[in-house]
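Renewal narrative, Specific Aim 1. Our central claim is that a sequence can be written position by position from structural information alone. The example that follows is taken directly from our test logs and has not been curated for this report. It begins with the structure tokens describing the chain, in the order in which they were read.
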């Protein structure tokens, strides 16, 4: 495929694990004409995100998973995505709702569970910079055999820079 991939996280320990996986798959990556890199990146560190954006970006695709759990960081996340994007960039984000969502609903504590507030905040901020849509929503599943918890619901977002 020949893809150039940059994987980021704010935790050094997680990047060490990613680097081990890269090393274990090095032959396959090279044979496919690809290259990989990892970067330590915290969205709240503007200098670092700008450096990654300038030296590695802009990116054709940004694929992210499970990054919307902290509402206070959403503004910096949107800014980071914007810095790393070009007019042609497509951003895909997968977000699993947590069990807390269902706990809050069942106890009637708040009519808008934390996960939904989190999603609304992010989509509002993202809409200021990107054309966005919820590409897909998968409701939670029933517990699998032998498990007591339901699988979380999943939200998939697609963002583009638009015209």
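The sequence written for that structure reads:
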């Amino acid at each position: 495929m020949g893809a150039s991939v940059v994987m980021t996280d704010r935790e050094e320990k997680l990047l060490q694990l990613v680097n081990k996986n890269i090393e274990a798959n090095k032959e396959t990556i090279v044979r496919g004409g690809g290259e990989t890199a990892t970067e330590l990146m915290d969205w709240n560190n503007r200098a670092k995100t700008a450096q990654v954006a300038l030296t590695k970006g802009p990116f054709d695709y940004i694929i992210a998973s499970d990054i919307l759990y902290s509402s206070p960081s959403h503004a910096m996340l949107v800014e980071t995505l914007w810095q790393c994007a070009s007019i042609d960039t497509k951003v895909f984000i997968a977000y699993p709702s947590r069990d807390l969502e269902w706990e809050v609903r069942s106890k009637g504590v708040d009519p808008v569970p934390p996960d939904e507030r989190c999603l609304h905040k992010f989509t509002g901020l993202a809409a200021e910079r990107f054309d966005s849509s919820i590409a897909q929503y998968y409701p939670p599943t029933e517990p699998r055999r032998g498990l007591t918890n339901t699988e979380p619901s999943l939200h998939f977002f697609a963002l583009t820079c638009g015209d």
